Automatic annotation (TrEMBL):
The protein's Enzyme Commission number: 3.2.1.1
Record GO terms (molecular function): alpha-amylase activity
Annotated Glycoside hydrolase family 57 N-terminal domain residues: 6-295
Name assigned to this protein: Glycosyl hydrolase family 57
Length: 405
């Protein structure tokens, strides 16, 4: 029986004020972040994706409750999404809590979907992993046993830290430059020279995931149209110890609109998958605990892996001088922020670390550039750079002013 982990990244960032710092705002958060825009985007995506996709999965999970091979789904839900869901659509939290216990698992990640895992000093990253885990447990009553760093960003040290913080497994991209001839459908672990007590490195099957995430509505694709029946057949033909499908939840109804048939595909997928006697759905914790690693996944720091762009590295966030400068500034501010020990200051700083801000100012071209532009709310990367810089410099002044008191 081949276990299939069906996992979804669920995230919405706190967006910055495009029109500049609001100096008369009543809170430090309101000074920099635009809740009107946040509410607009969240409610729009909720209507197109979150409600219809979750309703279909929940209905199928309840229908199959008690079956030998039931539907199991896994959600990697960001802190930023949880905060906004509680504010704009708390019924989404209720829906996730209605899944039968044996049908749902939650995946840990960094607090506020941040880039702290790329900091030179990893203490903030450790704090974020544990704090987000507590947020998930408080919200959904589940203690995550498997984690993914933001956007599947991974190198050996990140894997080592995840094991030290108690995670049994960590997800990343099955990048060919690391795997070589090997399959992503097995568990791997950190090299011995990194740690002797590593955890399981679980790899996303990029091709099968992107057949849905990117190619589903592509009329140029030679497999178009993709049906649940055809896709389930491909899954049944896979070889290995596991098959990890990990995609953006907004694939269903937002990136591919309802008119493409994507929601019907999602609704039919469990039934078509379980028609194959060699397939079953699994929680990520089950796969992490039940599979011994078959080898090492050696991603050293200067060969960082992610699921972004063709390079599958950190260049989506640190690929140009604008991104690098702002990232260094965010990192430099840590000492002053921690010295103040002001909860409001620390929370705003952590929201600045959310990966989306730097993702929006990438200057890549061709297909990768189109992806960055699609997600960005800035007219141009350089506008984004100006906006982020203004907010970050003002934030630094506010921190330093409070330090002088």
């Amino acid at each position: 029986m081949l276990p299939v982990t069906l996992s979804f990244e669920v995230h919405q960032p706190h967006r910055l004020r495009i029109d500049g710092v609001k100096k008369d705002a009543g809170t430090l958060y309101g000074r920099y972040f635009d809740d009107e825009m946040n509410e607009h985007f969240f409610k729009d995506v909720a209507e197109n994706c979150y409600f219809p996709a979750t309703e279909r999965l929940l209905r199928e999970a309840k229908r199959r409750e008690g079956d030998d091979r039931n539907l199991k789904v896994n959600f990697s839900v960001s802190t930023a999404w949880i905060e906004q869901a509680k504010k704009y659509h708390p019924e989404l939290i209720d829906m996730l809590n209605q899944f039968p216990d044996n049908s749902i698992d939650f995946i840990g990640q960094a607090y506020q979907h941040s880039l702290a895992g790329l900091f030179n000093d990893k203490e903030e990253f450790r704090w974020q992993l544990n704090h987000h885990r507590q947020v998930v447990e408080d919200t959904f009553g589940v203690n995550p046993q498997v984690m993914t760093n933001t956007e599947l960003i991974y190198h050996n040290e990140i894997g080592k830290i995840s094991a030290e913080e108690g995670y049994k497994g960590i997800f990343t991209e099955g990048a060919d430059r690391i795997l070589g001839w090997r399959s992503p459908n097995h568990a791997y672990t950190q090299p011995d020279f990194v740690t002797e007590n590593g955890n399981n490195v679980m790899l996303r099957n990029r091709k099968l995931t992107d057949d849905v995430g990117y190619r589903f509505s592509a009329e140029w694709w030679d497999e178009y149209p993709l049906t649940a029946e055809k896709y389930a057949l491909w899954l049944s033909e896979a070889q290995g110890d596991m098959l990890n499908l990990f995609m953006d939840y907004e694939t269903f109804g937002e990136h591919h609109w309802e008119g493409t048939g994507i929601l019907w595909f999602l609704e039919a997928l469990p039934e078509e998958t379980l028609k194959h006697d060699n397939l079953e759905f699994a929680k990520v914790r089950e796969v992490a605990q039940n599979n011994e690693p078959v080898g090492e996944f050696d991603a050293f720091e200067y060969n960082t892996v992610s699921w972004a762009d063709q390079e599958m590295d950190a260049s989506a966030w640190l690929g140009n001088p604008m991104q690098k400068m702002l990232f260094e500034k965010m990192q430099e501010l840590e000492g002053k922020v921690k010295q103040l020990d002001d909860p409001e200051i620390k929370e705003v700083w952590r929201k600045f670390l959310t990966s989306d801000h730097l993702h929006h100012i990438a200057t890549k071209t061709y297909d990768d550039g189109s992806v960055h532009n699609y997600f960005s709310y800035f007219d141009h990367p350089h506008q984004g750079f100006a906006v982020i810089t203004e907010h970050l410099m003002d934030f630094q002044q506010q921190v330093e002013k409070r330090l002088r008191k």
